[in-house]
Structures are given as structure tokens and as C-alpha cells.
Amino acid sequence: MIITTSRNPTSEMVERGLQLSERFSGVYQKRYRRTIHSFLEQSDSVYMVGKHGRDVLYSAYSDQPLFFHPSMAKVRVQRMLRGELDPLVSISRLRRGDSFLDLTLGLGADSIVAAHVTGENGSIVGIEKNAYIAEIVARGLTYWQEEVPGLKAAMQRISVVEGDHLQYLQKTADNSFDVVYADPMFKNPRLHSNHLAPLRPFVEEGVMTETVVKEAKRVARHAVVLKTERGSLLFSQLGFESQENHRSISYGVIYEKGGCNDEACDRHRGTDSRW
């Protein structure tokens, strides 16, 4: 891994590049007038510290760089602002004030949607195993400028945790989150998800095991939700009830402790407001 900066860096960017080189066990190299391609001739991957928190990750195995962008989260939030329903929100029965644990953060689209729904009193934690992706997304969530009402504030309410999701679950107390969610990287790329293509060189295929699900059920107060490719056997293998089917993806859910029906949800949150 080579760590560098964009051209004409500030002293703060250089210092951060040096710090990341230690954290990532990489090598810091000054940018000067060099191209990213020239760095990729020396290393399989390059992490570029960018201006205004916009870092970029390059791979020799992909022609698409990885950088933070709210992606479909922005579209989904705009739809909800128009009164439309979001599949994840409907299935998880997520409401204002809820806590949401995202086991597979990636670029954070689902967590952004959850943060918008749960509001200022909600709690959103996203787990990302890859240190490079975790850093890029954490920076992006902090510094991204957005005009959609409330979206920037929602993004800044997400806590990014670098680590293994099973280990995190095992250290978490019973009933710590209202909803536990996972969207493991599929074996077969989603044709309509070109925005996810840059992730592939840096992530492992998500592994959902009985142990992970058991721990998720222990940690979840109301629901464990899984999104996977349509036709996957994971739902039947792991005990999920299929709820939504789209052209290429499906959602499954396990409602814990009787789930969270409207009456139970309202008692728990003290409100009947959805979002």
C-alpha cells in the first residue's frame, strides 16, 4: 500500500498521510507531479489523502477508484421525503429514536437511510472490516456537503467502527440495538449496482453463518434483517422469513421477542411518529 496526497497538499494533509502510512503499515510517498498510475506500477493499491476530506482509494485490479458518495441513499431519502416507503425501513419497522447496527457498512448507504429515519435521538453504528474503506467512509460522512434537507446531519450521526462484525457482536450486550442489519457482498455482482464495483477489490465476500445470526438475534431487540441476492438459499438456511423481492435482491427478516408491532413500538419509543 502506498499512501500519497492530491497535488499541492497542505501541511495537514501531508501529516495525515504520514499517520495513515503507519496505521496501514504502508509507505508514504510525496505526490509531486506523479500520476496515480505511476504509483500503481509500484503497488497494488494507493490511498490518496484528498482535500476537504475526500480521500480516494485506487486498485491495480479496478479501473474505478473508490471514494465516498451517498449514492442511492440520497435518492432513497428524497423518496421518503415525498412520502414513499423504503423497503429496508418497512421491513425492519425502523422508527424515530431507534438504534440500528449495520454489520456490513460498505459505503454506508443503508446506514444513512437509517440515520435519516431514526433522527436526532437515534443511534447508528456501522461495522467495516476493511481499514481503508472504514477510513474513507468515516471521512466522507463527516465532510460531505449535501443540500437534501437533513441528509448531512443524518450522515454525521453515524458512528463508523473498524473491525470484524462477529467479534463486535460477541462483545455487545443483549438487546443493545433495536435492529441489526447485514448486506454481505454477493458472489454475483448486482448488475444495477455499478456504484458498488469499486468496493470489490478491497472486500471479502460476506460470510453469514449460524453463529453470526445467533449473536445478531441476541443483540437485537426487535429485528434482524438480511439483504442478499434473489434466489439465495441463505434465508432458508439461516431461518429468515423472506419479505421483499426485487429483480435482483431480496430482504429477509427475523422478528425478535414478538417483533415490534405498532403498539409495542409506540410503548418502547413513546411516540407513534415514523419519520
TrEMBL record:
Instruction: Report which superkingdom the organism of origin falls in.
Output: Bacteria
| UniProt entry tagged with the keyword Cell inner membrane | no
For the keyword Methyltransferase, the answer is yes
InterPro entries attached to this UniProt entry: 16SrRNA_methylTrfase_J, SAM-dependent_MTases_sf
Q: Which GO terms describe its molecular function?
A: rRNA (guanine-N2-)-methyltransferase activity
- Entry-linked Pfam families: SAM_MT (PF04445)
Q: Matching CDD domains, A to Z?
A: AdoMet_MTases
Keywords (alphabetical) are: Methyltransferase, Transferase
Name of the protein in its database record: SAM-dependent methyltransferase
Q: Which organism is it from?
A: Geomicrobium halophilum
